[in-house]
Amino acid sequence: MPTFTYPRLLLAALLPLAAACDHDVTPDLYPTQVTFTQAGLYPEGSQYDNQSRRFLVSSQTAGRIGQVDLDGNYTAFADDASLVSTIGLNLDVPRSRLLAAVSDPGYNTARTSATTKGKLAGLASFNRSTGALLSYVSLGSLRPAYAGHFANDIAVDNLGNAYVTDSYAPLIYKVDTQGTATVFLENAALGAPAGTFGLNGIVYHPDGYLLVAKSDEGALLKVPINNPSGFSKVTATGLNLSGDDGLQLYDNQTLLVACNAQGQVYRLTSADGFGSVSRTGSFATGAVYPTTLPLLGTTSYVLYSHLDALQKMQSPAVSQFALARVQF
């Protein structure tokens, strides 16, 4: 159970007021940690929906998308046979939809197959309120010549275009609001050695570019929307970002980065439009394999996924997962 003890109805009434607080204030109303029990779920993606006051979480083993209230109660939110494994999530509030990256690392024994294992990249869209499937778009089929595909994370620009990273191929896809999928960026420099993850977390900056984590290098990339081939590596002198995964653009100068193998969340600040960054804070999670970073009001959380246990096929499977408040 979470460490928060106020009655949930009182919390629900006061959260919108707390969300208006300054970024430097961590509202005491927010739970320090929300723990939920779901044996062997292994979520990777997470978002917070302020409208329904719930976290949304994906699952590598079940495929379905779940919802977790602030008392730590888990229930199913959306499911479909096409969801082999759900990875990154993006709650597109202006268009009232939840986007999910769909892949097949082979852990969902009920849905994996020889034709999809390590080769699947898709984007599913769901109604934000009902969880009804709105669309499913195949992405990996745009470039079938690559040996592997793995749709990992999603960013959405202010026009509703979705950008999806592929961790197994040197690709970023683009899906417009009509569901038309194209290859947004393809470059051999974006690849990674076989068996490792390359492109990973991705966020959209309102100044017109994407920030992308490249896990195998511990690098951050800046990709202009209007000139994707002109991408560049963000200078991060003296910083160890190995295993960088989920990203959260906290404000226009501040980026949070979850580095799962390190058990750390770093706060990076830029004074030059993310040409370079410096570290201005860190939060140690411990050995819980932190992945993604949902935002509750103005308070950042990080998902403790324990995906390392899944990768090692640990038995018994992990049964408790958590969303912890990031405190620098």
TrEMBL record:
<feature type="signal peptide">
    <location>
        <begin position="1"/>
        <end position="20"/>
    </location>
</feature>
<dbReference type="InterPro" id="IPR053224">
    <property type="entry name" value="Sensory_adhesion_molecule"/>
</dbReference>
<keyword id="KW-0732">Signal</keyword>
<protein>
    <recommendedName>
        <fullName>Gluconolaconase</fullName>
    </recommendedName>
</protein>
<dbReference type="InterPro" id="IPR011042">
    <property type="entry name" value="6-blade_b-propeller_TolB-like"/>
</dbReference>
